[in-house]
Amino acid sequence: MADRAAWSEYLDQRQPHFVEELRELVRIPSISALPEHAAEVSRAAEWVAGRLRAAGVEGVRVVPTGGHPAVIGEWLRAPGKPTVTLYGHFDVQPVDPLDLWTDPPFSAALRDGRIYGRGASDMKGGVLATIIAVETLLQTAGSLPVNVKFLFEGQEEIGSPQMASFLADHRALLATDYVVMADGGQWSETEPALSLGLRGVVGMEVHVFGARTDLHSGGYGGTIANPLHALAELIASMHRPDGTIAVEGFYDDVAVLSAEERARIAAVPFDEAEYLAQLGVPELFGEPGYSTYERTWVRPTLEVNGMWGGFQGEGNKTVLPNAAHAKITCRLVPNQEPGRIAELVRAHVEGHAPRGVRVELRPMGLGARPYVVPAEHPGVVAARDVLTDVYGREPYYVRSGGSVPISGMLLEALGAYSIPLGFALKDERSHAPNEFYRLASYRRAQEVYIRLLERAGA
Amino acid sequence: MADRAAWSEYLDQRQPHFVEELRELVRIPSISALPEHAAEVSRAAEWVAGRLRAAGVEGVRVVPTGGHPAVIGEWLRAPGKPTVTLYGHFDVQPVDPLDLWTDPPFSAALRDGRIYGRGASDMKGGVLATIIAVETLLQTAGSLPVNVKFLFEGQEEIGSPQMASFLADHRALLATDYVVMADGGQWSETEPALSLGLRGVVGMEVHVFGARTDLHSGGYGGTIANPLHALAELIASMHRPDGTIAVEGFYDDVAVLSAEERARIAAVPFDEAEYLAQLGVPELFGEPGYSTYERTWVRPTLEVNGMWGGFQGEGNKTVLPNAAHAKITCRLVPNQEPGRIAELVRAHVEGHAPRGVRVELRPMGLGARPYVVPAEHPGVVAARDVLTDVYGREPYYVRSGGSVPISGMLLEALGAYSIPLGFALKDERSHAPNEFYRLASYRRAQEVYIRLLERAGA
């Protein structure tokens, strides 16, 4: 095993070079959502593969997926030791609105100890940090303390559409004990966090149809049902006034939180006044009996994301519209199943269909199971120990209210849990103009990944 | 007084010429809604003024209004007789979608006894028919049986924005006993109708505001109020499940129908199966205890014309939107006041504002009092007698569910009721592509206006 002085010196000496390498990677506009950028996503894949080979990783390949390619590699010369997969993504979000960027989004401007650019924080810095960690150990100790695999994808920002089949097709090649996801964040520069879960999601559309065509509201209003009234009634019926979801059976499969889980969540700092001020709302509103974090992390929701029908322009158009529409997503928690929840909402819509209109519930592509890694998982324990050591305090155990499909896919295809261990900070504007990444976080990430591999192999 | 043989012969002989004149007028694209057509609206005004002079009408003037001009004229040589004003409009609706027209909309194609073109049915045919009626009487009898004034406007299709002040500014010049509106329709080619009323209208917008910006529904959904849920709740609260309006006090000022009025409405033929089939809806839906015509003509409504918020595109965007909006119009019946109704809706919105959002009710420009002419009004009686004579049966007494501001304006400014007496038919596609007017209706209109003036002077 390398001693700390050796790898620390290696990192310090080469840090200026590693920073230039990160700027090089950030300059590749690998926007996965835009078809005209597909070649750039592939270029980023090739760049990452080249960097893996330079680090001494073996079996490096850019693998087609049917969509944007993945990059894999491995170092498996630690017999008897566990296999840890380092996961990341080299694709980035689009850059609109372009005029809000101070520097061109792919110029990788270096200023005040930060690299500005799309993908710097989310998450090209993390990708490179994992590679640097492995290189550093190989260079200073000549070997790794565990077996390591790399899995980098180019389609995370568009929901990893081809990754489920890619993982299923390469089960043996990708077999692993657990995955360390270099995607994720610190709680603050002085406080670590470990994210133990993601909510699932299921999406659907409600369509309400009335007459064959739009009608004049003076001539026909009041004689037949108005689809906008019917939709309002239907949407209003889905919640009770206290904010709970009124869809029958919706909460049936929700896992009851243990006292320990609730205590872990209660330990995460929350400033209600700051939360309200930041959002600009007068009060909190949600399911009674649960804290804001519990409402976000461990309780399911049913939210209308869009609703429309009839005339929306300036002025008046006295139309009785012939249709009304709503888009709904439910965030799911263990042990809710996306398909089952969609069926419950369908039954609710059918059971509450107002008179005089035809109501249709259409499932949407969106669907992901909730994902939770047990707090006692060896990967979580290893990450906790390393973070406690590095920050001088235990991490907060958080979850994400959002839904990232890849964790669920990895669990399903490989039977392997993922431990999110990233170093982004909340103010780094991921997905927004002027995204940046702190060089201090970059250096810290490299060190934490080194220590994690050491701890995993101990 | 002219004898029937004389004016009938005059009409017959000149009918081909009158048809060519109507085609000439239809060819002027006097679209009042399009600023770039303002000169064409003025050209139509000049054309109508010239035609009035040619008919022997005196004091003919094109009068500025601040918007599109009006045309007035008079013949006041029947001392001791009442004064009847003949009203019409020479502006027309826009022609979109142009590609659905078989002939160019201003080509005035003559085919199968019909003139095809925008404004042919609504209502350049009616305008010319009134002028021809007066010319015919002057030519065949040398005088008119009553005093006649003409009032033609060029802004009816955009809601007559300058007509209220125009009427107020010319009260003496326009003083009259009653107005015959050449705008309106027959029930069918063999059945006459007289429209005794129009509903009023008042418009407003409801805006619901949540957070300062759109938020991620995974990160924030379930912790603060969703404006779309709040709007749905608010809109749903405005009606009871049976279709009645739940706004407190909404029905307070509604005039109770007399048994006679209800009987007149019940006498109008209504085929429910045909109505449903035409609209493509499974069932009628509206205020219990009232027929479809009563719901349309003599009962008020509150209809949402448009509603929107959040994401409406293809696919998913898991947004918790920061605002939601609805446009509402209420149709009003005697004795509801637009301002009072807007206040009641405002009070409802404030009283039912869901928690956690800010709700705003904004009044819209739209506002018109309901208008009803008494069935025993001398103008109505005269029109009834003439129609009964011409069709061989009494007219149906109908109303309009819509709102045309000019009738209310005439009543308010001149103290004069208007009697709608037009000859459009329901299939003539007014406001739609391929509008047409039947030459038979044109000839019938000329005759009815002649007889009406005779009857009014008798």
Folded structure, characterized:
The structure is a homodimer of 458-residue chains. The first copy, chain A, has 14 helices and 18 strands. By secondary structure, the first copy, chain A, is of the alpha+beta class. Chain A has 2 domains: 4-198 and 371-457, 3-Layer(aba) Sandwich (Aminopeptidase); 200-254 and 300-368, Alpha-Beta Plaits. In chain A, helix 2 (38-55) runs parallel beside helix 3 (120-141). The longest helix of chain A has 23 residues, at 4-26. The mean pLDDT of chain A is 95. Chains A and B meet through strand 10, helix 6, helix 7, helix 10 and strand 11 of A and strand 10, helix 6, helix 7, helix 10 and strand 11 of B. Strand 11 of chain A pairs antiparallel with strand 11 of chain B, so a sheet runs across the interface.
SSE arrangement:
The structure is a homodimer.
Chain A: H1 4-26, H2 38-55, E1 58-63, E2 70-75, E3 83-89, E4 109-111, E5 114-116, H3 120-141, E6 147-153, H4 163-169, H5 171-174, E7 178-181, E8 193-198, E9 200-209, E10 215-216, H6 217-220, H7 227-236, H8 259-266, H9 272-279, H10 292-297, E11 301-310, E12 319-320, E13 323-332, H11 338-351, E14 358-368, E15 371-372, H12 378-391, E16 396-400, H13 405-414, E17 417-420, E18 436-438, H14 439-457
Parallel strand pairs in A: 3-6, 3-7, 7-17, 8-16
Antiparallel strand pairs in A: 1-2, 2-6, 4-5, 5-18, 8-15, 9-13, 9-14, 10-12, 11-13
